[in-house]
Design a protein that fits this description.
The complex is a heterodimer of chains A (about 60) and B (about 750). With about 60 residues, chain A is an alpha+beta fold. Chain A has a domain of about 35 residues. A two-stranded antiparallel ribbon of chain A has the order 1-2. Chain B is an alpha+beta fold. The longest helix of chain B is centred in the first third of the chain and has 29 residues. In chain B, a hairpin with a 5-residue loop joins strand 4 and strand 5. Chain B has 20 helices and 29 strands. Chain B has a 7-stranded mixed beta sheet with strand order 12-13-10-20-17-18-19. A 5-stranded mixed beta sheet of chain B has the order 1-29-26-25-24. In chain B, strands 2-3-4-5-6 form a 5-stranded mixed beta sheet. Helices cover about 30% and strands about 20% of the residues of chain B. Classes of the chains: A alpha+beta (about 60), B alpha+beta (about 750). Strand 1 of chain A pairs antiparallel with strand 12 of chain B.
Chain lengths: ~60, ~750
């Protein structure tokens, strides 16, 4: 029974670990330089998009 | 040697177990749809048939009701395989097992990867790991266990490829029964049509034959009618003497596409409707020290780099999205960042090993958790005629699969709400789905995981850290991205086989017999029995675990705890043999305990293969090790030449007893690969810590065993008939390191107690 319990815990741990948590987190900082398909370069317009609201780190 | 050492005794054992396999009641209904007969296995109330149909039988003329098997109008049998194909050949062997029971024409058998769907959980794999004692349960309780583990499997998203389990669980308990049930339904349909007894109809190469009337027809002619036949949930399975495909080295179905460069791996993902040239790529960087965060970044230079589209500080990592991977990675390389301070007191490799030794010291003579106990090991040690005290260590290891870690993700709003598609190489597609859902705040049903071939995994792709990162970036950008980790990122910031220290005290009586076995170590993950020297009859045994902190996160690595414990235990047993003045192989044979006929068999076989007792030349020695893992008993002998001052491996012999091997060539491939994997770790594998971060970065300083260092490997298969059968993917690995260390000692007198070995020679 001890092994059974340990194995159940191991399976659950694997499942949770593999899922990598379940907290939704937004970017702390997002800098948009160009859109896909645009000629992205130094000349491209820059948009700084601060995250709102800022989320705690993962 | 012959294809297999299939003995009469083995065949009798196999036959005695067939009835047990055939009783399992997880076969549902066969239903005809659109000219295809589809046989369902693992079908239980509530199966979402309609959803499955669209996923696995959406092609012309195909229609699905409920299935792991479909027979198309073109007489093609398609086996729908729930396990992933990562080079281990499971797709082919599982199809081989199904096709044999179905009497299918192997040249007309195809394989389909089952989608990431709860209907394709591998409940028997979960069951074998959680409660192996239920695998051959009594008839009266079998439905209870089956139902329980179906629910557990679904709750745990147990669509898993790992633990060397595909053949010994899904193959034995699902594929064979699916094939046998389909065959019986086809015969029933033909009997009705031809007006003859079903017992007079035979099958061969996907053809139904009635000799008395001269009738014969391909399976496809009766696909429709067969679907109307009642399905036997306990079809009779073939006895070994009747196998036509099982036990044979049939060619793998995945090889042609791989040889021709046509096979799709996760990194090859193409998004429907998106031109490859228009796809955006993400390069990512995590903080160098685990458990820390990005506190600030300077991306000024990166913004001016060609092709850059977005730069993101995600808190736990930085991402640069660009029009190509090269541009993304080059821009990422210019970003400087600040990170939060680590709370871990472990900064260096020395710190980590000091933490292990401190924990062992603190446990003293009776502290820690008792993992195994028999007799009075302490008193027996005190009274021993010869005392032996040794300590071994193993370092952290990375998985280093050849296909870089990657995940393509597309998060978008649709008329039906937010949806996400993921393309990735994963050993756990349903867990990947749940991970993505959690990271996005979406329901599992709104996530679709596409999981093609894996370019290696070794346990790395049991984790979904990279999946959550990719979907977060894709959500932030609002358009699809293909995230690829650099080799450096995966070497330095992934999850690892843990390092450990293991300390032994052994006591021998006046006759040299090991009568006291005291062992304490710090890392116990899975499987629990890996640290127990259960094959040996030692009157007084104490195995303890003194838990110590790991600086780097844990991940299962090929053979998991056996990878360290095999080295620790089999090195210590070898030292005991030397202390006793005994031949190491004979010493092991003499120590074997109860129920070790298989262990005796592999030791005697490998002794014969290696000509163990023959005198070798000066500076040449043999080392032996035996480890039982994942249901397979394996003994390996390595011959080493030390005359150059460095170990040169001359030959490797392995005798493996997996009970019954379904595809000898595939099995040997896996054992050979496992041996090379184990020898790589033994010779070179080492992840070190500096300032809390991983020192190694790429293959130049995290070396693999080279072709010119790898001698011929001879693998003997012993089919002892054990049921359930054993695995193949991992059991070759654990004996390799101790066999090499023991051989080096035999050749040179130098005992290596710390891995890796290569750096210990000038």
């Amino acid at each position: 029974m001890r092994k059974f319990t340990a194995s159940m815990a191991a399976l659950g741990t694997l499942s949770l670990a593999a899922c990598g948590g379940s907290e939704v987190q937004e970017p702390v900082e997002q800098i948009v330089v160009a859109k896909p398909g645009e000629a992205a370069s130094a000349a491209a317009p820059e948009q700084a998009v601060p995250a709102e609201p800022e989320q705690p780190a993962e | 040697m012959s294809e297999q050492d299939t003995g009469t005794q083995a065949a009798k054992k196999e036959r005695s177990k067939v009835a047990k396999w055939s009783r399992r009641g997880f076969i549902g209904a066969g239903v005809l749809a659109g000219g295809a007969l589809l046989i369902g296995v693992g079908v239980r109330p509530g199966n979402p048939v309609g959803k499955l149909k669209a996923k696995v039988a959406g092609g012309a003329g195909e229609e699905l009701v409920n299935s792991w098997v479909k027979i198309g109008a073109d007489n093609i049998v398609t086996a729908i395989i729930p396990h992933c194909e990562m080079g281990q050949g499971a797709h082919s062997v599982l199809a081989q097992m199904l096709a044999d029971e179905l009497d299918a024409d192997w040249s007309k058998v195809e394989v389909m990867q089952a989608p990431a769907d709860g209907s394709y959980i591998v409940s028997d794999t979960a069951r074998m790991f959680v409660a192996p004692f239920t695998m051959n349960a009594a008839d009266w309780i079998e439905p209870t266990w089956d139902g329980l583990f179906t629910q557990i499997g679904r709750l745990a998203d147990a669509m898993i490829t790992g633990g060397s389990s595909s053949i010994r669980t899904t193959g034995q308990y699902q594929m064979r029964i699916a094939g046998a049930a389909a065959r019986k339904m086809l015969i029933g349909a033909a009997a009705d049509e031809w007006g003859v007894p079903a017992s007079e109809i035979t099958t061969r190469d996907s053809t139904l034959i009635h000799s008395g009337s001269g009738n014969s027809a391909p399976y496809s002619d009766f696909a429709a009618a067969a679907a109307e036949q009642p399905m036997d949930s306990s079809p009779a399975l073939k006895e070994p003497k009747d196998y036509r495909l099982m036990g044979k080295s049939k060619r793998r179905t995945d090889i042609p596409a791989k040889v021709m460069g046509k096979a799709d791996f996760g990194i090859d993902a193409n998004i429907p409707g998106v031109e490859l040239a228009d796809l955006s790529y993400a390069a990512v960087r995590r903080p160098p020290v685990p458990g820390t965060e990005v506190t600030s970044m300077d991306a000024e230079a990166a913004k001016a780099m060609p092709g850059v589209q977005q730069i993101l500080n995600m808190g736990s990592f930085i991402a640069v999205v660009a029009d190509g991977y090269w541009n993304a990675q080059q821009a990422l390389n210019t970003i400087t960042a600040e990170y939060s301070a680590s709370e871990s007191p472990i900064k260096t490799t020395a710190d980590q090993f000091a933490a292990f030794r401190d924990a062992i010291d603190a446990a003293g003579d009776d502290g820690g958790e008792q993992a195994a106990s028999r007799g009075d090991a302490a008193s027996a040690f005190a009274d021993a005629a010869t005392k032996l005290e040794t300590e071994y260590s193993a370092p952290y290891l990375a998985h280093a699969p050849m296909e870089p870690v990657n995940c393509t993700a597309w998060v978008r709003d649709t008329d039906d709400g937010a949806k996400c598609d993921i393309w990735t190489s994963t050993q756990v597609p349903l867990m990947a789905r749940s991970a993505a859902a959690g990271a996005l705040g979406m329901d599992d049903e709104d996530i679709t995981v596409h999981h093609p071939f894996l370019g290696g995994a070794f346990g790395r792709r049991l984790e979904n850290d990279y999946v959550t990162m990719a979907v977060r970036v894709a959500k932030a950008t609002g358009y699809p991205i293909k995230m690829i980790w650099s080799r450096e990122e995966d070497t330095q910031k992934a999850l690892y086989r843990p390092a450990d220290v293991s300390r032994f005290k052994g006591g021998l009586d006046a006759g040299g017999k090991l009568v006291s076995y005291n062992n304490i170590f710090t890392q116990r993950h899975d499987p629990a029995e890996a640290s127990v020297p259960g094959i040996y009859d030692i009157a007084n045994t104490s195995v303890r675990v003194a838990e110590a902190p790991l600086h780097l996160p844990f991940s299962a690595w090929r053979s998991v705890d056996h990878s360290q414990q095999g080295f620790f235990i089999e090195s210590f047993i070898d030292e005991a043999a030397i202390a006793a003045g005994a031949d190491p192989l004979e010493y092991r044979l003499n120590m074997l305990g109860a129920n070790t006929a298989r262990h005796k068999g592999v030791l005697e076989k490998v002794a014969e293969m290696s000509n163990w007792s023959a005198q070798r030349g000066e500076g040449i020695g043999l080392g032996v090790a035996i480890v039982e893992s994942f249901g397979t008993v394996g003994a390996e002998v390595i011959e080493v030449d030390m005359n150059s001052g460095r170990p040169k491996m001359l030959n490797i012999w392995a005798a493996m007893d997996a009970g019954y091997v379904m595809n000898p060539d595939g099995f040997r491939n896996q054992i050979e690969g496992g041996i090379v994997f184990g020898l790589t770790a033994a010779m070179y594998g080492e992840i070190e810590l500096e300032d809390g971060a991983v020192k190694q970065s790429n293959f130049h300083d995290y070396q693999m065993l080279r072709m010119d260092e790898t001698p011929a490997i001879e693998v003997a298969i012993i089919n002892s008939g054990t049921v359930p059968v054993g695995g193949a993917g991992e059991p070759g690995t654990p004996p390799a390191a101790p066999a090499l260390a023991n051989a080096i000692f035999a050749a040179s007198g130098k005992r290596l107690r710390d891995m890796p070995f290569a750096k210990q020679f000038a």
